[in-house]
Amino acid sequence: MSSYKNIIEWDYEVLLDLPKEESSELEYKSSKIPLDILRNKISIAASSFWNSGGGVFITGISDNGTIDGGIPMNKGKQSIRDWADNAIKLTEPLGEYEIYVIEHEAATPNIDEDRVILVIRFLKSNIVPHMAYDRKYYIRAGAHSDGATHFQVETLRSLRQFTKPNIRGVMRSHPNKPRIEELVIISLNDTVALDVKLTFDPFPLALKNHFIDDFPLEIPAIDKNNPFRMDISGFGFREQAFGKDSVKLILEFKDVLGNEYRVEQMINPNKNLQPMAIGEDINERLVKAIENLTKKI
């Protein structure tokens, strides 16, 4: 998918430079296809691309990669963008996608007046499998969208467990050491984060003076039942340990498939801390509160 990112930056020249042949990441549909039929083909494309790692679907280009006039700007009173949005929503569950249209201009001789080229990018999905309008599942096989076998559907369904790890740093008063404050890295979902590297920018003063050579800390794994805990400062001495300004907590980690992630989070040394339960019986209210906060951010 790296070749087809940022479709909102596409223009007529990009269309001319596209490969002439379709691929596992690229599908063309001719302008000659009636919209009622095209609607179903968009749903099938959504299913197959989401189930296969993502791809781009373009209407207004023939199978040989030639721009062939474009499709109407509107379907009745509905813009073609809204119409395409409804066509995609025939697929369940919905994954992430982007819609873009390239309109007729003086410099676009192959796009007819009042016509557009419709470009839809389907992003990689972690909630596979996706079912098309006809209650069937599809996968991308080379330049074609083929019906998925029962085994393939079950394999896709098993991949749901490999969602992106979601880990977060929390400062709290230590539950067993009076007057000690600690940093805890917790997981907000059931996916394990592997090969976690933890560091700060800038370094808290106490760590900078005594432990800077030990960073980044390397933690083999963090999951919901195995958080990482680290004493940071004594009660009342947080400003001496951190300084007056917030510091950035940086977490780099992998999922079980080897995909790499980086999370940055600000820690404010001036916020009051409350005792909280974290461990094998993680406080569900804490997890939900952080999830809600993350969504709002």
Would you give an account of this structure?
This protein is of the alpha+beta class and 297 residues long. The protein has two domains: 2-161, Schlafen, AAA domain (Methyltransferase, Cobalt-precorrin-4 Transmethylase, Domain 2); 167-296, Immunoglobulin-like. The protein has seven helices and 16 strands. Strands 1, 2, 3, 6 and 7 form a five-stranded mixed beta sheet that branches. A four-stranded antiparallel beta sheet has the order 13-12-15-16, with no helix packed on it. Helix 2 (35-50) crosses helix 3. The two termini are 27 Å apart. Mean pLDDT is 84; it is low at 275-283.
Binned strand content: 25-35%
Q: Do you know the CATH topology of the largest domain?
A: Methyltransferase, Cobalt-precorrin-4 Transmethylase, Domain 2
Counted by DSSP, the helix tally is 7
Total of domains: 2
Radius of gyration: 25 Å
Mean pLDDT: 84
Which CATH architecture of the largest domain?
2-Layer Sandwich
Shape from CA axes? elongated
User: Secondary-structure element order, as H and E?
Assistant: HEHEEEEHEEEEHEEEHEEHEEH
Q: Structural class of the secondary structure composition?
A: alpha+beta
Reported for the largest beta sheet, the result is: 5 strands, mixed
Number of strands: 16
